[in-house]
Amino acid sequence: xxxxxxxxxxxxxxxxxxxxxxxxxxxxxxxxxxxxxxxxxxxxxxxxxxxxxxxxxxxxxxxxxxxxxxxxxxxxxxxxxxxxxxxxxxxxxxxxxxxxxxxxxxxxxxxxxxxxxxxxxxxxxxxxxxxxxxxxxxxxxxxxxxxxxxxxxxxxxxxxxxxxxxxxxxxxxxxxxxxxxxxxxxxxxxxxxxxxxxxxxxxxxxxxxxxxxxxxxxxxxxxxxxxxxxxxxxxxxxxxxxxxxxxxxxxxxxxxxxxxxxxxxxxxxxxxxxxxxxxxxxxxxxxxxxxxxxxxxxxxxxxxxxxxxxxxxxxxxxxxxxxxxxxxxxxxxxxxxxxxxxxxxxxxxxxxxxxxxxxxxxxxxxxxxx
Length: 370
Description:
Shape: globular
Number of domains: 2
Structural class: alpha/beta
Strand order of the largest sheet: 9-8-7-10-11
Helix content: 40-55%
Largest sheet: 5 strands, mixed
Distance between the termini: 19 Å
CATH topology of the largest domain: Nucleotidyltransferase, domain 5
CATH superfamily of the largest domain: ATPase, nucleotide binding domain
CATH class of the largest domain: Alpha Beta
Radius of gyration: 20 Å
Order of helices and strands: EEHHEEEHEHHEEEHHHHHHEHEHHE
Strand content: 15-25%
Number of strands: 12
């Protein structure tokens, strides 16, 4: 898959087994890697998403992203040493370029290209069926969160810190009837955008060092938290079409207007505080369940400042990295979409209306044969 951070294409090899009557599932991560996007590839995607593109460029991007995803799949197959004949299919989330539920959602990365390059069946386009059924089309990872990563005797929150933040609230034992999920708002998309604007030589704030040297401008964060998205009740989802380059520029301008001597570090710290406080605010508003255990995954987990400030804002809940209990948290979303493909082949539904707001359970994904 390729996420909203636009870092690259992540690929995982996953072995999934079901228990008696499919009631329980186990998952083994056999391999994982990320094929980083080149600067030119990332800039093409960012221009197309934020500024639009010609029909010809959208068509080329669709095929090119399919090729990049195929390269990631082939690389992880080679690295893991798994014979191609043992692989049932490639599950491809693709790259979201527009998300406007319940009207439309669009993920590019042509499945036919992946099938041709890998010689494997491909299951793709997971979000559209849920949107067609009146849902948000996101988050789709909750069924994997509940089926694979629940706590046996306590409520758990699984918080993703990708480009966009999302949370799944999982009941004890992973009972699907009680699962809820929604996008909390920005993950690292605003932080990274601010860093790249202020320090063009940096792609992101490594380990949160720049933010740690600054002081958040609280009045700016307060003003940004008045965005109607944060107050909207779940189910809800968002993306780069809301938290845009214009939003980043507005945050920077607001910081400089509020504090004439604001440093780059202060502005980055303000972006980090926005993410941490928006997540904590979402828990306070919309998570009445007795959640005391929060597992963090996604690229934002590597930002120590974001992780520490979020832990403080979510106290007294215990906040840990996903890999402390399972595997590399960067692989979690790719594993989740592999699980959705597994459900597709078994004729089992993959969405949860309590998370997406769809009219009912649906089988997700489209099959492109090898």
